[in-house]
Amino acid sequence: MTSIQNIKYSCFVFVLSINLGCDSSEYVQPTETQSVEVEEVLTIGGTKNESAQSVVSTSDGGYAILGYTQSMDGDIFNKTDTSYDYWLLKFDASGQQQWQKVYGGSDDDRGEDLITTNDGGYAILGSSKSNDGNVSNNSGSNDFWVAKLDASGTIVWEKSFGYIGADSAFSIIQTQDNGFLLSGVLDVSASDGAGNNRMNMERHAGGDYWVVKIDAMGDLQWSRYFGGTFTDTAYDSIQTQDGNFLIMGSSDSDDVDINNNKGTYDFWVVKLNNTGTLLWEKSFGGTEIDEARTITSTADGNFLIAGDSRSNDIDLTTNNGAADVWIIKINSNGDLLWEKTFGGSSFDGVKAIHKTQNNEFLVAGNSRSSDGNLTKNNGQNDAWIFKINAQGNVMWQRTIGGNNIDLLMGVTELNNGSIIGVGNTNSSDIDISENKGFSDLLIIKAK
Q: Per-residue pLDDT tens for 94-105?
């Protein structure tokens, strides 16, 4: 068992109340009460850099975390050099670490997304520059690197997809046919138009959404890229009930596949059928920078998309100052149903949204604000987690951090209703009592 900093926070209870029937973005006089208690803050790491990027609940009531590690000391086991490796950690229902594994080669390999699979194992995805160790192939710079694991974290198969440029992966989902859909960004210029087997393609420069469909054994079925002549980055995806796919992220292009850019970067959503054909594309945002980060389904068959926004016009009705968390609800046709902003007068961002067992939503990110939806800031970026109901009203919120930079990158709910938020921290004071290196993996448990 690795040594883990474990701090009890039984006295930290934050209470907010809301009117659950209101669909307004304005503050509502409280009528009902919910509370959240931060039970544990854990830091895990060595003398260099670690971060968690994704967390999932597991069928045994525990959870697993994927991120990356640079250290080869402290809490990290079986690592032989200080290049970055994927880092997977498994915890039981009581929060005790059961095992950890590192994956990669001698170059820079960073895990970004983790899912549990239908057979009880895992699939991990990120970007890799290695062509040794666990990584059997690299085409140059970053490639998408995906590995299928069994329940104990042993590699069943692994695959690389990419070309000579920087091709970075951010999202993996298991599809209805038991295959997988990978999404991220393709360096179209460096690939010289490769990586796209759709018909009547218009070749263009820049970075594009890259969507790669593989079967259950990791063999390529199709790949497509979508975008314009500037920068278009896919951060997340979801499969719809009819077997199609929604891919979302950010775009600052206004040509080729993008027909209605609102200004600078927009939330950009594309819908594909199950063979990768583009069905429609929609842009959401204002005249400033708006970047979508994460998507989830809702109980009524629609979708919530969360990201960061600096706009206060066109699709946005308000901005609290600097950058806010912006959440939109759309239907399967891409129609905007509602939109809400969350934050304060400084910079606030989001990395993950998770639908809970009672069809509410956990939102995880970071904040520099101490006003608006927030009540305090301990210094620079604090880890920020809040919960909204189906109408987008805040039910509770909490910030955790120290005087340095503290970020949440993922969030999930366990079978018993506990909340696990993960990310990284550079702090060693206030809510974070120990830092073992430059940055540590951060785990926050709340109930």
A: 999 999 999 999
